[in-house]
Here is the input.
Amino acid sequence: MTDDIDAKLIEAGRKLFAGDWQFIWAAPAIEQLPPMAGLEIAFAGRSNVGKSSLINALTGRNSLARTSHTPGRTQELIFFDGPPNSGLRLVDMPGYGYAKAPKTQVASWTELIHKFLQGRASLARVYVLIDARHGLKDVDLEILKTLDRTAVSYQIVLTKTDQVKASELAATIAETEAALAKHPAAFPHVLSTSSRSGTGMAELRAAIVRLLEERGA
Ligand SMILES: Nc1nc2c(ncn2[C@@H]2O[C@H](COP(=O)(O)OP(=O)(O)O)[C@@H](O)[C@H]2O)c(=O)[nH]1
Ligand SMILES: [Mg+2]
Here is the structure.
């Protein structure tokens, strides 16, 4: 891809996410999803990895998605509609791997997450968020396995990169990309982001615009 096309995608991404984004729906169970409309992009990851913060950073809004210092807060699938005619929705998913929650609750959130990922025709991409300080864990690999069984494209996004040294980040990227070799359905490259510093936001917005263009939305 030439720099020219890159610059165009970056600008289109900036415009798309500078538009009006609105909360539209919260689904506590798989039977309560909103009617499908346009394409959906979901953000999955462990509790506290930075899903809601990433949605806020992408849209340039401080409190579109509710962030929390307490893990395990978002137990619903939260849907946000993009600007009118954008044909795009973002989905903030419940966090997985929250060890302190009661087992039955964990089981029901896990089921909700896996069912949504496997059964939603309008779901066009899943970004699986991984804390740059921790790297891939077993619970993350479970999600990758589920995604391998779907037709949904997915990519790993490292979060909180402001918290690690450049050398540490490079090692985590290399380890994560090596692990992805076992998951051919995944994008082979990982994106590095920080919602705090804004690192990677322009690239992520551009990647989303490219997806919309590919799907003819
Ligand atoms: N340093 C730093 N902290 C972050 C970043 N993104 C999120 N956090 C913090 O991580 C915690 C959990 O974030 P949240 O977005 O609620 O995570 P979620 O549970 O995955 O939705 C909050 O205290 C955020 O302020 C980041 O890029 N850098
Ligand atoms: Mg959240």
